[in-house]
Records
---
Amino acid sequence: MSVSVSCPRCGGPVRGPDLMHTESRCLVCGPVPPLHVPEHIGPEIVSSVVERISAGGATTPIWCPWPLPPGWTLTGVAWAGDDRTGVRATVVACAGPEPLGGGPADVVFVAEEPGVGLGTRFAGLSGPDPGPQLTEALRDPGPRHPEHVATAKVRAGGHPTPLWLVNSSTDRSAYAGEARGMWLHAIAWPASAGHLLAEQVVLHDLTEWTPPELVYGAPSPYLHGKA
């Protein structure tokens, strides 16, 4: 399996451990869990990533919409981590027709531990996590604070999971929330494709079961540097 390796926060090159350092590191961001992106996508690639997570004892989910929306395909899967830290983040990319305009659209779903910075990178934000605004919404989402009402709702692993719209680059829409004790990010291109999350999107963890009916498409450009 051919894999490209980069920094999860900035997309730059990553140096592996050496005699002076026990961790992988980016020259710009410092120590990071390196992002591994397979060059292709297919059932054998998904199985390989699942096996890597299981072998390392990690519990990081691989959130994939299932069933896929009509006309959509799975276009990529990646993970962040190394042999020392284990898998600390995963990302799934999908593509299909935009819900409103019918043009092409892409969505990525990121599950990550705090501090990895992969979700904010795809959102076009600085910093490793969504920030204090989302933290406040997670702490008190009740009716006393209408500004904290979730703007999207999905089901992740069988549980209703609210997501909040976060500031992002204007060419995309980005949502973030929490599932299984980790950040859950959903980023859509173009921005109007975020309407997909207004529907009842069900996220299934591929580490528990990979549907044999999954349809695979061309590799996502957003996992290979476009973001």
Note: Residues 167 and 174 are 7 Å apart (CA to CA).
---
Amino acid sequence: MTNDQEVLFTKFLDYLQSEQTPPEYLGEAPESTNLFDVYQMVAEWTALRHEVKQQGKLLRSTQDALVQALEVTRADKEQLQIRLEESQKQASAKFEQQQEKLLKDLLGILDALDRACNYWQEELEALSTTSNPKPTLQKGFWTKIKQWFAGKEVESTLSEKSVVSESLSEILTSNQQGVELIRRSLLEVLRQRRVVPIAAQGKPFNSQTMYAVGREEKAGVTDNTVIQEVVRGYLCGDRILREAQVIVATGVAREFEK
């Protein structure tokens, strides 16, 4: 060891053996000092590690419970959506059934109006026929004279009958026009709800929209052609609201020679 090293070592020993005054910033010296315990540090670190593991397990279990709760909530939401859709479908189906029943009831009223219009038309035609009889040709001079005198006697009676006939014709025409107006109004209401009649008269028989209530032999008409519409059919959009009841033509039976 060199002299310098010996001097430095000596100073170091003197420093260790001398009492050193602690600096002011350290404050009062502790009454006692414990030595650093490595085993205690390891024990505390092990306990801390165990606690961290326990907290990790608790966190994972909490996460699993949260995931399960979310899955249950999602399943409940899906079930609720399915029930809501089913409820909406049932409500819609019930509404459609009620609407279809109402439309069919209106069709019954429309049938009655159709029959009324046909009835007034037939009455007008019958009244027109009886009011305007065809003139008959009478031969002979004396016959004409008798008709002239007879005409003078019944002239007033015929005039009264003519007035009554004209009044009755006006009443029938007014009734027919009133019923026809109601019928057209009802048809317009149904048309706004996509209800339209099925064209059947003179058309080929269609089993999808028509129901044959009878067959009739008719010459000059193509086989399976509708020759009479017994009950008018109606469509509601693309759906058949009521089938048309018709009578279908069939070919005239041929007589084969023996």
Note: Confidence is low (pLDDT under 50) at residues 134-139, 152-158, 253-258.
